[in-house]
Amino acid sequence: MNAKKNILRFTVSMDKDLLDELLKITGQKKKSKAVNIACREFVKVKQKEILLSLKGSITFKGGANE
pLDDT tens digit string along 2-59? Predict the structure, then answer.
C-alpha cells in the first residue's frame, strides 16, 4: 500500500522547454516534484487573488476594533 497520502498518478503532455525551465527554477531533478511545486504555488497565488478581490466587501462585527 502507498504510504503517501492522496497521491494520484497520471500522464500529462507538456511543453519540453517549459518543463526544462520549471526544473531549473525549482532546482528539482524529478519532474513530478517540480510539477507539484508549481501547482502548489499556482493555487496559492489564485487563493490570494480571490481573497484580495473580497477586500472591502466583508464586514466583521464584534472584533477588537469595535
Answer: 566 888 999 999 999 999 999 999 999 999 999 999 999 999 999 999 999 998 888 8
Q: Is the dihedral of CA 30, 24, 5, 42 positive or negative?
A: negative
Q: What are phi and psi of 34, to 5 degrees?
A: -65, -45
**Helix 16-26 and helix 31-53, axial crossing angle in degrees, nearest 10:** 80
DSSP state of 55: T
DSSP structural state of residue 58: -
8 A C-beta contact, residue 31 and residue 20: no
- Give me the residue spans of the domains in the chain: 29-53
**Residue 8 phi, psi dihedral angles, 5° rounding:** -115, 125
